[in-house]
Design goal:
The chain is of the alpha/beta class. The strands form 2 sheets. Strands 1, 2, 3, 4, 5 and 11 form a 6-stranded mixed beta sheet that branches. Strands 8-7-9-6-10 form a 5-stranded mixed beta sheet. Strand 1, helix 2 and strand 2 form a beta-alpha-beta unit. Helix 2 crosses helix 8. The longest helix has 17 residues.
Length: 236
Amino acid sequence: FVLCIAIICSSLVFGQNIKLGVGSDLPPYVLRESNSGIELDIAREALALKGHTVTPVYLPFGRVMFALEAGDVDGALTTNEDSGITNVYYSDSHIHYQNVAVSLSKHNFPITDVNSLKNHSVLAFQFATRFLGEEYNQMAKRNKNYTEKAQQSIQISMLYLNRVEVIVLDLIIFKYFKKLEKRVSTTAPVDVFEVFAPTRYKVGFKIKSIREDFNKGLAALRKSGRYDEIILKYIE
């Protein structure tokens, strides 16, 4: 009888509370005030399908992966193998960021590549020159009308007010802030130029079995259509 109980207990899957390292606010991917956002919702629901709960641990972006490496958290957003952190189990890609250049369609700008941006006034997200490659960095240096802003909602109003010709930002972030913009009309059509390669991100875990549970939950979210519902909730 005792042996049978042991076998039964060993076959049960007990969910764990996962301390998930998360960078500071990056709407709509992470919304600290409401403990929500596209990435956080995907991670939470994927793990919940395998019986786990998530406790977000908010940290400066630069510290998230070091906290994971040190074992201060069980998992971390937003990362991939390029982080340089060892002893981490990376999940399947749960999200990809697609940076784009956006202009008002009325201009009909012939933007075909990164170098094309040098001919226009450009407002990009903060530190874009660090993340978008050397060609982009050189373009920015040659462009006297290039600026960056930390507050990305400003990019939307500046574009629709014709204060800048092109904005550079993630496509989902653009759609999110466009939806929220109340100060100016955002009805004018825009052209979206995918002149940057997408960046695929993963969740890093300290424990391999948790990574496997996440991957299974993520696959189930995609198959059920819930994955798309999470994204659309924030941009439509």
